Amino acid sequence: MTSNAPLILTLDYHGVPHRWVTWQQACFYYAKNLVAWTLGEAAFTYYGGVSRATGSRSSITTQSIIAIRGKAMAMKGFSQVPPLSNRELFRRDRHICGYCGGEFGFLRLTRDHITPVSRGGRDHWMNVVAACRHCNGMKRNRTPQEAGLELLYTPYVPNKAEYLILTNRKILSDQMEFLVQHVSSHSRVLKLAGAAA
Ligand SMILES: [Zn+2]
Known about the structure:
Layout: E1 8-11, E2 17-21, H1 23-31, E3 35-50, E4 57-68, H2 71-75, H3 86-92, E5 109-113, E6 128-132, H4 133-139, H5 144-147, H6 160-167, H7 173-180, H8 189-196
């Protein structure tokens, strides 16, 4: 039950998407009276122990999207560039090699640095694409131009909402509806959103 439970989308007080939390964390926010307002159609009720005093069972109901009050949330920096990891990078690039256009599973893809790190290229969203092992091997320590390869798509930094879409494979439809409003209309992530809907 726990592992299959959907994650709850938290927003800051102003409605900016923040992060996914487990239902336990969501219940903690409710219990601490930190939920400022809620959105979303889905509601989940979780039951605690039976109170010895009243004999009734405690329960907390959480909406699928909750806005959290307090400075603690704001301090964590919403405008930060999301951390770069292969899982999210490959999802950003829809598991398509940036050089040959083939679609590959996770294990057959690599993080290609468009300008190689050894040549001063950064390990950053803007300088990386998913590349299959074959293409990466051909490219070696060269730029695409030097290797005679053409980059099929341009890299970009996912914004917060895009990153949240990339990191959760079980997004509820009301959560997805909310997140796509924060994604630019040309984002490739929208194709993931379409596939999930
Ligand atoms: Zn390839």
